[in-house]
Amino acid sequence: MTRATSSEGRDVTLIRNVRPWGGETTDIHIEDGRITRLEPSGQGSGGAAASDFQVALDGAVDGGGLLAIPGLVNVHAHVDKTWWGRSWVSYEGDPSTPGRIKYEREHRDALGIPSVEYTTASLREFVRHGTTVLRTHVDVDLGIGLRGIDVVREALDHLGGAIQAQIVAFPQDGVLRRPGVVGLLEQAAKAGAEYVGGLDPATIDRDPVGQLDAIFGVAERHGVGVDVHLHDGGELGAFQIELIIDRTVRAGLQGKVTVAHGFAVGQLPAARQQELVEAMGEAGITMSTVAPVEPPPLPIAALKEAGVVMGLGTDGVRDLWTPYGTGDLLAVATTMARLSRRRDDGGLEAVALMATSGAAPLVGREIHDLQVGARADVVLLDAENIPDAVTRAPARALVVSGGRVVARQGEVLV
Predict the structure, then answer these.
(1) Is 282 helix (H, G, I), strand (E, B) or coil?
(2) What residues have CB less than 8 Å from 338, skipping those under 6 apart?
(3) 142, exposed or middle or buried, with CB in 10 Å at 0-12, 13-18, 19+?
């Protein structure tokens, strides 16, 4: 096995003395970037001070008895929009969705957005906090063309595989109201984008059937998925979800369509909500949420019961939409748990799954866990158990991506 230089992190063959999901101390064996064996370590619980997390010449690292979880899975990001790493940009403009779109279009060029430098800096923060795989929306519009996708791919290359990513060609400025955008989505799909996006078909394009027909048409022609931002609430939002369900089934895209945000689901009366989530589950619709503070929380238990796979995302991080965000998905999980009033261990563990292995289908992985055959994405943190980790979001002591140490004690090694 070829080893990376120390400045780029080191390949790992054994992570010794860790507690997967808070269980017994275990040794995790790794070969060619995948987990090949787990066995009891027999070294006791140890502690954070028991290890400096340096990789030995034989590829072994002592985990010091820390809690081990799979790499965090960020299923809703906008890494092309960020200004992370530059001087402070004051937050201004109309806070509505149309207002933010307009403000961003007016100011992004002057700030040099999208930027390989800023996007790389943001992705490094994701790595530092334990994210090893993500789905990111990248703006595709008449002003920028496909340049944002090129920027994101170059930034990902700078990290050398520390984060694996799927790209959504995202028409932030609308689909039908901007002639030529559908053609750009076609080009993006041909060029390898895994998803085409949509945005509030009723209120942005004022033609929900037309927008959905357009983006699903691109998806059908190129074999890609669909990811629709849907902020519209109440019955208007529910109606659009029903249109998405119908289009998904007719296109045979079950399991490849995501409703992002989906605020309406949390705003419906109980009987109507149950009817809708069951229909979503039957159609294989997935959901992503960024744990927003203002709308009513999504019904996590009902969605899970209906078979709707859910994942968490960071949304924008320090961009022209919001000055907030650190790239820490576990902190988003903490917020999600609080907003959903999760206090019992089972509820807190369910949120942890949304941020890790439970979101695997949203990033094209059959398995993303601490088990044989999975990619060796492992995060160590000093927590007693999963509920403790979710409620505190402690610092990540070690981050391993594909069997390579990419961050240690807060230092990013890529």
Answers:
(1) helix
(2) none
(3) middle
Nearest to residue 139, comparing CAs of 150, 127, 154, 131? 150
Residue carrying structure tokens 């997935």: 286
- Strand 378-381, strand 396-401: pairing: antiparallel
Q: What is the DSSP string of 295-357?
A: SPPP-HHHHHHTT--EEE--B--SSSS-S---S-HHHHHHHHHHHTT--SHHHHHHHHHHTTG
Please say whether the beta carbons of 80 and 136 come within 8 A.
yes
Distance CA 47, CA 119 (A): 35
d(CA 80, CA 116): 8
The two tokens of residue 274 are 């149950």
For 180-228, what is each residue's pLDDT tens digit? 999 999 999 999 999 999 999 999 999 999 999 999 999 999 999 999 9
d(CA 334, CA 345): 13
Q: For 95-146, write each residue's pLDDT tens digit.
A: 888 999 999 999 999 999 999 999 999 999 999 999 999 999 999 999 999 9
pTM higher than 0.85: yes
Distance in angstroms (rounded) separating the CA atoms of residues 310 and 288? 6
> What is the spatial distance between Cα 341 and Cα 292, in angstroms, rounded to a whole number?
14
């519209």: which residue's tokens? Answer: 232
Give φ, ψ of 211 to 5 degrees.
-65, -45
Distance CA 372, CA 231 (A): 39
DSSP-derived pairing of the beta strands 14-20 and 286-289? unpaired
Judged by DSSP in three states, 172 sits in coil
Spell out the residues 6+ positions from residue 387 whose beta carbon is closer than 8 angstroms to its own. Answer: 345, 348, 349
Strand partners, 62: 16
Nearest to 351 by CA among 332, 369, 377: 332
Distance in angstroms between the alpha carbons of the first and the last residue of the chain: 19
Enumerate the H helices of 41-180 as residue ranges: 97-107, 116-128, 147-158
List Cβ neighbours of 331 (8 Å cut-off, separation of 6 or more).
129, 393
Confidence of residue 334 (pLDDT cuts 50, 70, 90): very high
Residue 362 contacts residue 286 (beta carbons within 8 Å) = yes
* CB neighbours of residue 182 within 10 Å: 18
Q: Which residue has the tokens 């069997």?
A: 403
For residue 114, is the peptide bond before it cis, meaning its omega torsion is within 30 degrees of 0?
yes
